[in-house]
Every structure is written in C-alpha cells, then in structure tokens.
C-alpha cells in the first residue's frame, strides 16, 4: 500500500507550503514505474513509484534532471523531492501538461539540443552512476572517450549479458578488440547528453516549448544522443535539419559511430527484453567488426 500521506508531507517540506493531495490519478509513466498526477490547492505534481530498493534510481534521475536544467530553449521537469515512503521509493516532479510535439517544436528541440551539447565538462562521465531503463549505468570519469565507451558502456553491458547470452560476449570481445580503429582520431568534447533520447522521452508543453525527460545523463560524445534519436524513429526531418544546421555533422558519424553508439542501447534492450534484440546486437557487432 502506498503511503500517500508521507509523500504529501515530503512535497510540503520540499516546497515550504502545505500540500495535501485532493486527487490522485494514474498517469502514463512508461513500463518501469507506476505514475500518478497529484493535485491539491491549485498545485499539481507528477509522482513515480517503484520498489524501495530503487530509491537510488530516483535520486540519480532527480540529479540528472537538475543537470539538464542548465539548458536553454527547452524545458525539463523540475524535481521536487524523492525518497522512500513505506515500502516504496518515489520521486515527485513538477507536473507539465505534455502534448505530442509538433514539427515546429521538434525544430526548436534540434536547435536547443545543439546548444545543450555546448555545455561541456573536463572529462567524460559524471559524478555519479545512474540507470538506463533499470540497468545500472556506470559513469566513472575517463580522460579518453574511447576508454570511456569501451569500459563504461560496451564492456559493462556485455559483461552483464555474458551469463545468459555467451554468444554476445564472444562477439563483443571481437568488437572491443577493434574499437580503437573504429574511433581512431575521434576526440569529441565531453558534452552534456540526455543519454536516452528516444521519441517516448520527448514532448512539448502548452506553449509549444520542447520538453525532455527520463534522462540517463552523463558527459560524452554529443553524437550518442543523435544516434539514439535515429534508432527507434519518431523524430521528423526538421529536427535533424535544425540540429545539424546549428552544429554540423562530422565525418564518420553515419557509417561508423552511429551504429556503434546505437549498439549500447540494443545491448541494453537485449538485457532487459531478450528476443530479437539479441540477434540484432550480434548482427550489428559483426558489421562493425567488418568496417574495422
């Protein structure tokens, strides 16, 4: 049973104003967490619930949203509070009435994302680990992009898959052996990236301002965000025209780095869902090895 009184009290403490929800309505929040819209005294909040042992996942989400809040030209839900109430972890965010993004909003998103990628750090990674879906995502900082992508992304995911999918691990070892060649000469800035920028994590608000949410934040190659936007579709041509117009594409993205960066997300889907994602990951690893 959800301890709503404790969640109301946590919101009141965080905002400094008395809050007691008058209505609690289920909301769409994806397949990972239960989601609700809380309303009372003219205020509204978006609350996600999960198992108590996933409290750190919500803490990292709150930190990631705060990090993305540096961006201009787009909107990010403001985290209000998070913690554990009874047997459940929770996170409360400002409630935004989301709408399906229009082509004009996607064009604004493209420009704003390029601007956000101009926020850079000294090293690749972040000051805390987080999750990609429910999978742990290691963000220990590295001074070299190739090593960060090798150790914190591909090797970490392949190691997690090895007990159930040894064939992926074997083909992954072959890919890791040629990774230096695939990324030779590529030294991108450590840009602030959303980390999980698929179409389900993009919308717009009532003012047609683009909104991004549910991040897996770190500092890395900006092209990782672009690769994810192209993996599952949902982003219209005006988005890419606006982005590449603001920050032009560099050589090697299309045929080398895009599939290499998409592989991480395919491996994560293989880890979470199995099925055809396993075969698709294997196919992509073989193709990348052939390119090297």
UniProtKB/TrEMBL annotation:
Keywords: Kinase, Transferase
Molecular functions (GO terms): kinase activity
UniProt-listed InterPro entries: Fructo-/Ketosamine-3-kinase, Kinase-like_dom_sf
Segments passing through the bilayer: none
Signal peptide positions (record): none
Xref: Pfam families: Fructosamin_kin
Superkingdom in the source lineage: Bacteria
Stated family: Belongs to the fructosamine kinase family.
Protein name: Fructosamine kinase
Lineage, opening ranks: Bacteria, Pseudomonadati, Pseudomonadota, Gammaproteobacteria, Salinisphaerales
């Amino acid at each position: 049973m959800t301890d709503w009184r404790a969640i109301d009290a946590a919101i009141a403490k965080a905002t400094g104003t008395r809050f007691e929800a008058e209505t609690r309505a289920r909301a769409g929040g994806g397949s990972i967490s239960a989601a609700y819209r809380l309303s009372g005294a003219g205020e509204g909040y978006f609350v996600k619930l999960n198992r108590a042992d996933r409290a750190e996942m919500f803490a990292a989400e709150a930190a990631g949203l705060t990090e993305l809040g540096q961006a201009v030209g787009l909107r990010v839900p403001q985290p209000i509070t998070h913690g554990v109430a009874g047997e459940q972890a929770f996170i409360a965010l400002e409630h935004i009435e989301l709408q399906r993004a229009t082509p004009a909003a996607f064009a604004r998103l493209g420009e704003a994302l390029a601007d956000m990628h101009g926020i850079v750090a000294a090293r690749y990674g972040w000051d805390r680990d987080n999750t990609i879906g429910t999978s742990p995502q290691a963000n220990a900082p590295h001074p070299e992009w190739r090593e960060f992508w090798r150790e914190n992304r591909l090797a970490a995911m392949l190691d997690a898959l090895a007990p159930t999918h040894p064939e992926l691990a074997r083909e992954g070892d072959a890919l890791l052996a040629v990774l230096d060649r695939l990324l030779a000469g590529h030294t991108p800035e450590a840009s602030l990236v959303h980390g999980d920028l698929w179409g389900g994590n993009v919308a717009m608000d009532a003012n047609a301002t683009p909104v991004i949410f549910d991040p897996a934040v770190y500092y890395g190659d900006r092209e990782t965000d672009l690769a994810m936007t192209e993996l599952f579709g949902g982003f219209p041509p005006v988005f890419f025209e606006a982005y590449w117009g603001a920050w032009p594409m560099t050589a090697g993205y299309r045929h080398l780095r895009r599939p290499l960066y998409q592989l991480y997300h395919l491996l994560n889907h293989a880890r979470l869902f199995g099925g055809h994602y396993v075969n698709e990951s294997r196919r992509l690893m073989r193709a990348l090895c052939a390119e090297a």
